[in-house]
Amino acid sequence: MASVLDSVDAGVQTITLNRPEKLNALNPEMHERLAAAFERARRESEIRAVLLTGAGRGFCTGQDLAERDVRPGAPPIDLSLSLGRHYNPLVRRMRELPKPIVCAVNGVAAGAGANLALACDIVIAARSASFVQAFSRLGLVPDAGGSYFLPRLVGTARAMGLALLAEKLSAEQAAQWGLIWKAVDDASLPGEARALAEHLAQGPTKGYGLLKRALYAENELDAQLDLERDLQREAGLTNDYREGVTAFKEKRAPRFTGK
Ligand code: LHQ
Predict the structure, then answer these.
(1) Each residue of 184-198: pLDDT tens digit?
(2) In terms of C-beta density within 10 A (0-12 exposed, 13-18 middle, 19 or more buried), how is residue 38 classed?
């Protein structure tokens, strides 16, 4: 079985991290496959939403530590190389994808695995899942966007506590803190995540892409108002805008085509 599964159905591309015996810890082969999967998401117009999840009892435990030779005498490891080659392009690809990414966190999400979840646009987690900023246990800095996402999502005080202490944060607590969208019963996760992704896949895809740009921009109010104006110009020119307004007037559900 491939270490990353990629399938498309009803406008939803499901990307499954698939090394369950290692709790889906990431190795270079998985990175290559993830890059290809997100490139496919960008390229294929049939794909209107992405669902990222993990196989087995874990979501993803970050970098595969078995790959790191830290024995005495082993040459020093330059971790910036794997960030530059794999993790940073992955996070950029995800944030820049003009389509919504749903993350279904099915189990523990640790280190870069936790931050991979936070790079998604909407995160839904099983109640038994947890988030661990494991980096400081290894003497490392939160990466894969963690030092950016955490303070913005939960504030500096909680971000600092999570990063310094590297304790497990339950899915419930993560939802209460605003780190994720919501926590659901374990048995409901696959169904709820799928329904969410299908709902988004039937939405105004172009508008969603523009909406991501608006919400992820880092601007002062003045520049943000200008950005909203420019994005709204584009949104207003879509077929889906016409359909949305028409459906409202006709008191029926809209039938968006994503165009
Ligand atoms: C693993 C891993 C793993 C290898 C579980 N690697 N095998 C750094 C460098 C450069 C660039 C990018 O970013 C980074 C940042 C990082 O992501 S560094 C890695 C950060 N992650 C961690 O430190 C998490 C390590 N894992 C754990 O602490 C535990 O596995 C947790 C607490 C997540 C889960 O514990 P348990 O439920 O008790 O499971 P387990 O530890 O027994 O794991 C099951 C298997 O998975 C086990 O293998 P084995 O052959 O003994 O059954 C683990 O060795 C393996 N595994 N995470 N990251």
Answers:
(1) 999 999 999 999 999
(2) buried
**Separation of 213 CA from ligand 1 center, angstroms?**
33
Residue 112 beta carbon below 6 angstroms from any ligand 1 atom: yes
Residue 2 C-alpha from the chain's centroid: 21
pTM, two decimal places: 0.98
Q: What's the one-letter identity of residue 1?
A: M
Residue whose entry in the numeric block shows the structure tokens 């944060």: 169
Q: Are 43 and 76 in contact (CB under 8 A)?
A: no
Q: Please, are residues 84 and 141 in contact by the beta-carbon 8 Å criterion? A: no
User: What is the number of the ligand 1 atom nearest to the C-alpha of 62?
Assistant: 17
Predicted confidence (pLDDT) per residue in 220-255, tens digit: 999 999 999 999 999 999 999 999 999 999 999 999
Q: Is the CB of 66 under 6 A from ligand 1?
A: yes
Exposed e or buried b per residue across 122-144, where buried means at least 16 C-beta atoms within 10 angstroms of its C-beta: bbbbbbbbbbbbbbeeeebebbb
